[in-house]
Amino acid sequence: MTTRTPDADQELAAFLRTRRERLDPRDFALPPRRGARRTPGLRREEVAELAGVSVDYVVRLEQARGLRPSADVVEALARALRLGPDERACLFDLTRQRRRDAEGPATTAAPQLARLVADLSPLPAMLMNHRYDILAWNPEMAALLLDFGTLPAARRNAMWLCLAHPETRERYADRERVLREGVAHLRSAWAAHPEDRVPAGLIAECAAHDEEFARLWTERDVRVNGRGSKAVRHPDAGALAVHFEVLTPLQDTDQRLMICRPADGASRAALDGLTGR
Q1: Has residue 105 been placed in a domain?
Q2: What span, in angstroms and rounded, lies between the C-alpha atoms of 141 and 123?
């Protein structure tokens, strides 16, 4: 299989097409038009009318002809396509309209945040950058998922562990849901930083070696999981479940702090057993 990295213009074009095609014309107060619809969703001229732009402009966007819409146009397209919050953020990222920090991603944990991760014990916690590289973790998180210190630095990445690492990916009880959400989450992360070659390389690697990933990637779902739950089949502790929360520090906005809590008493006992408490 040929390995290809994503292209931002092509992704923007495909994203706009898929969102347009998913809409039901009956949900819009559009004037009647002659002729049967030959494709699903709204027509390009209908999106143009709803967004207040020319049909040619929509055509050029969907053909990846290098347009850079203004923030006002992006907002109008988001309204016309009825995008949800995550989809709207993705559209702004793909059109380069979201503000970005001038510096590259953090490769080491901010010292204060590394201490916070340690202080959060006995709750499992870890710190990541926008690539989901794992910069710091406490013993409880290592016991729950994996001893990250045994991995090469380039493989200490939460997305790679979730999507491609054989041992970790099989720990999730609801593997299909976790994979689907992981792909959607990775798309959101890549769209926010399409100039960053590392996430693009991870996407190409997974798409080349995992048919299920490649199929889900073409669906172009986007999602940002700031909180949720995961059920885990741990090889030592058995079945357990955790709730997680992902926080972004105001002082270090490229870094993300994930904190897990046992979902029930049995899971708390299982985690205590793993860490010898």
Answers
A1: no
A2: 8
CATH number of residue 45's parent domain: 1.10.260.40
If asked whether residues 69 and 152 sit together in one domain, one would say: no
SS3 of 251, please? coil
Question: First CA to last CA across the chain, in angstroms?
Answer: 48
Residue 133 DSSP one-character state: B
Distance CA 239, CA 152 (A): 28
Q: Do both 132 and 35 map to the same domain? A: no
Cβ neighbour number for residue 204 with a 10 Å cutoff? 16
Contact 61, 67 (CB under 8 A): yes
CA distances from 238 to 164, 178, 234, 273 (A): 22, 18, 5, 11
User: Does 103 reside within a domain?
Assistant: no
pLDDT averages per 10-residue partition of the chain, 277 residues: 68 93 86 67 92 95 90 94 90 80 72 96 94 94 93 91 86 88 87 82 87 89 87 92 94 90 94 82
Look up the domain containing 13 and give its range: 8-94
pLDDT digits (tens, 9 = 90+) for 58-82: 999 999 988 889 999 999 999 999 9
Q: Residue type for 79, please?
A: R
Whether residue 67 sits in one domain with residue 115: no
Which CATH number is 195's domain given? Answer: 3.30.450.180
Same domain flag for 173 and 84: no
Burial 22-43 (b: 16+ CB within 10 A, else e): ebeeeeeeeeeeeeeeeeebbb
How does pLDDT run across 216-273, given as a tens digit for each residue?
998 888 888 789 999 999 999 999 999 999 999 988 888 999 999 999 999 999 998 8
Structural domains of the chain, count: 2
CA 244 to chain centre: 16
